[in-house]
UniProtKB/TrEMBL annotation:
It comes from Saccharothrix saharensis. Keywords: Flavoprotein, FMN, Oxidoreductase. Belongs to the FMN-dependent alpha-hydroxy acid dehydrogenase family. This is 4-hydroxymandelate oxidase. Its cofactor is FMN. The active site is at residue 247. Pfam families: FMN_dh.
């Protein structure tokens, strides 16, 4: 892990209520996938290419829903006001200042309108995406989508890896089920039928996704895809992009490491839509490996929460700066001029030698 990120994590651990630290840090079940997401990156290496570099590198990536000045976006995570009193407002400012996208969760502790306003107060062109779980009551989903549109969000991210809540052992041990007094999921107020809670439903289907897509003209990303066949279905159902993710090891503890699921999804999608990866990205080298395996960008979840807890917007800014700086350095070391120079032939599995057929 990048040493700066490790320091921020330790600072976060020191300042956070241990119950809230464990909510952020923990995973499902035995936390096998939680560990594997990071370990899988350490099993991969990048072959440098020589004599083809450039003094300054262009890290920009264009995605449906916004331009990123570095190929790292802020993955949606719940309850930022547990980490810092400003919550998602601070995260939004930092993401906008870094020139990247905040995917703001439906389970935010600041209403989406205020999140977008915070981002735009820093950069009038900032893009904020809205993440939601498709609700079994489609009137609720439609209302959430309309709120995101009215707020000025430029894409929707539909999370589909949560037919039921993941069982997080650390939360169960602490008895952590509810937000403390004074904090609430602000997007979940005044919804049809008086609904207040986010519902996870195993009955949500591709039909729900089709109907959701008909209610909006925003680009729609599908988050939580691991099976290549689902990636193909996603394209057939008209998504603008796919996020390969096991929810940071918080849903099925039998899932593969995110980066291990990436190449097959990239192959299945075959360039028709961009693929983003999240899970276990802890340094610029991980960003480079994911891009070399075909991701257009990566998402980071927990490191942003550590930065937020450690130092509010400045801490989140530090996380994004560290990742940008380290990614740029690794790109230079690989003889890359821009992210497109990171190709799959550069990726090697440690301990298995290098194929003479590379490239
Ligand atoms: C505390 C926490 C809360 C999360 N909440 C959500 C959420 O509300 N919606 C969602 O789609 N993903 C959620 N995620 C998953 C992240 O979007 C992302 O997939 C994951 O954190 C990436 O792994 P990383 O933390 O190793 O970077 C959450 C993750 C964490 C750690
Ligand atoms: C309804 C909140 C869901 C948060 C979440 O997705 C997580 O903690 O992983």
């Amino acid at each position: 892990m990048n040493t700066g990120l490790a320091e921020l994590r330790e600072k976060a651990r020191a300042v956070l209520d241990p119950v809230h630290y464990d909510y952020y840090a923990g995973g499902v079940g035995d936390e096998v996938v939680l560990g594997e997401n990071e370990a899988a990156f350490r099993r991969l290496a990048l072959l440098p290419r020589v004599l083809r570099g450039r003094a300054t590198r262009d890290l920009t990536v264009d995605l449906p829903g916004g331009r990123l000045r570095l190929p790292v976006l802020v993955a949606p995570t719940a309850f930022h006001r547990l980490a810092h009193p400003e919550g998602e407002v601070a995260t939004a400012r930092a993401a906008a200042a870094a020139g990247t996208v905040l995917v703001s969760g439906v389970a935010s502790t600041v209403a989406i309108g205020d999140v977008v306003a915070a981002a735009r107060s820093v950069d009038a062109t900032a893009s904020v995406w809205f993440q939601l779980y498709p609700q079994p009551d489609e009137a609720v989903t439609a209302c959430l989508v309309e709120r995101a549109e009215r707020a000025g969000c430029t894409a929707l991210v539909v999370t589909v890896d949560s037919p039921v809540f993941g069982r997080h052992r650390r939360d169960a041990e602490h008895g952590f089920h509810d937000l403390p007094a004074g904090l609430a999921t602000e997007n979940m107020r005044d919804l049809p039928g008086g609904v207040r809670d986010i519902v996870m439903s195993p009955e949500v289907s591709w039909d729900h996704l089709d109907r959701l897509r008909e209610t909006t003209s925003l680009p729609l990303w599908l988050k939580g895809v691991l099976h290549p066949r689902d990636a193909v279905l996603a394209v057939e159902h008209g998504v603008a992009g796919v996020v390969v993710s096991n929810h940071g090891g918080r849903q099925s503890d039998l899932a593969p490491a995110a980066v291990e699921a990436l190449p097959a999804v990239v192959d299945a999608v075959a360039g028709r839509v961009p693929v983003v990866l999240d899970g276990g990205v802890r340094g610029g080298g991980d960003v480079a490996v994911a891009l070399a395996l075909g991701a257009a960008a990566v998402g980071v979840g927990r490191p942003v929460l550590w930065g937020l807890a450690a130092d509010g917007a400045a801490g989140v800014g530090r996380v994004l700066d560290l990742l940008r700086d380290e990614f740029d350095h690794v790109l230079a070391l690989c003889g890359g001029r821009d992210p497109a120079d990171l190709t799959r032939d550069l990726v090697v599995t440690r301990g298995r030698g290098v194929s003479a057929r590379c490239g």
